[in-house]
């Protein structure tokens, strides 16, 4: 299906989505989000895809929600038509998504990176929530996910002053899992996603769900939730195959069953 604001392709078992509005530094408008939702749905329902990569351009992962699209909106417009709600297509995905961030990840751009499961940053990456400079504040999860990722002090400073973090600070703070040279970013993100996509898909999906629940539940409830999901992997052929392959000193042949 042809898209205007994104490009998609499948490489092996990895679905790759590239944000592609270069003239607007990949600012996120309604059309882009609609296309993103369609692409994610496609990869989610494709048995040949085990993980996804979301990336942008060298200059910008995404410079935020489209300010020009938001400019004329009134309070009643955004209450009646919650334009952020469709962005949740990313956080609802059950297959893992690796964000490969080069250049600016600002406002909604930082927020969609945080909706992904793993963030790899190029050494050129800049993360920020500059909405306060526009007379508003983050509206796509930034005030909730950023403090969970980097702690209250840094999150508060970023949200209240609009200060950006470079890649080193973002890695130190725990917002990104690793920094790689910009030229190697996509290859590295594809390798991470391919490694995930080689594993047993039901276990990958349950592992993702279990880690995500750590943000919703008490430790005790979270441990119980994890235990039940862990036990349920003993009902899969893949769990038996994985352990048998280890004992036989060979690579497992997972069937996603
Ligand atoms: N929305 C719409 N257009 C944007 C945009 C955005 N978020 N960010 C950049 N653009 C456009 C610019 O208007 C410009 O278009 P024109 O050529 O037509 O003028 C083009 O992209 C290139 O941008 P710049 O000329 O500004 O490039 P630069 O290299 O000088 O600066 C930048 C880069 C620092 C990222 C700067 O573009 C910038 O500050 N962008 C806005 C960042 C921002 O405030 N993001 C938060 C948006 S609000 C939000 O996201 C709400 C939410 O939580 C959901």
Task: Walk me through what this model shows.
The chain has 257 residues and is of the alpha/beta class. Helix content is 45%, strand content 16%. It is built from twelve helices and ten strands. It has helices at residues 30-44, 67-70, 75-80, 89-92, 108-115, 142-150, 152-161, 167-173, 185-197, 201-213, 219-232, 237-248; strands at residues 6-11, 14-19, 51-55, 60-62, 97-101, 104-106, 118-122, 126-128, 165-166, 178-180. The strands form two sheets. A six-stranded mixed β-sheet has the order 1-2-3-5-7-10, with helices on both faces. A four-stranded mixed β-sheet has the order 4-6-8-9. A hairpin with a 2-residue loop joins strand 1 (6-11) and strand 2 (14-19). The radius of gyration is 19 Å and the shape is globular. Bound molecules: acetoacetyl-coenzyme A. Acetoacetyl-coenzyme A (CAA) binds at residues 24-25, 27, 63-68, 84, 104, 106-108, 111, 130-131, 134, 138-140, 142.
Summarize the topology.
Elements: E1 6-11, E2 14-19, H1 30-44, E3 51-55, E4 60-62, H2 67-70, H3 75-80, H4 89-92, E5 97-101, E6 104-106, H5 108-115, E7 118-122, E8 126-128, H6 142-150, H7 152-161, E9 165-166, H8 167-173, E10 178-180, H9 185-197, H10 201-213, H11 219-232, H12 237-248
Parallel strand pairs: 2-3, 3-5, 4-6, 5-7, 6-8, 7-10
Antiparallel strand pairs: 1-2, 8-9
Helix pairs in contact: 5-6, 6-7, 10-11
The structure holds acetoacetyl-coenzyme A.
